[in-house]
Amino acid sequence: MTADEKAKAKTEQAEGKVKKVAGGAVGNESLEAEGRAEETKGDLRAAKEKAKDAIKPK
Fold first, then answer.
1. Is the pTM for the entire model greater than 0.90?
2. What residue spans of 1-58 are helical by DSSP H?
3. 57, exposed or middle or buried, with CB in 10 Å at 0-12, 13-18, 19+?
4. Do 43 and 13 meet the contact criterion of CB atoms below 8 Å apart?
5. d(CA 48, CA 54)
6. Among positive and negative, which fits the CA dihedral 17, 22, 24, 29?
């Protein structure tokens, strides 16, 4: 996994989690949904990079 893509994935996951928790705390369903979406985007980016690493020749 490239360091840049790994960092983007972790950032998206962290920002998404913060938005999700903040949205839930204040009762803002829109912010909570946005957080879930961003967290999922980070998860998918990380999975994509792991798959690319798995098939990369050693």
1. no
2. 3-26, 29-55
3. exposed
4. yes
5. 10
6. negative
Confidence of residue 1 (pLDDT cuts 50, 70, 90): low
Who contacts 14 (Cβ-Cβ below 8 Å, separation ≥6)? 42
Cα separation of 22 and 10, whole Å?
18
**Position 6: which residue type?**
K
User: Which has more confidence, 19 or 55?
Assistant: 19
Tens of pLDDT, residues 21-35: 999 999 999 999 999
Cβ–Cβ under 8 Å, residues 21 and 33: no
Q: How far apart are CA 50 and CA 9, in angstroms?
A: 11
Joined together, the tokens standing for residue 21 give: 């928790």
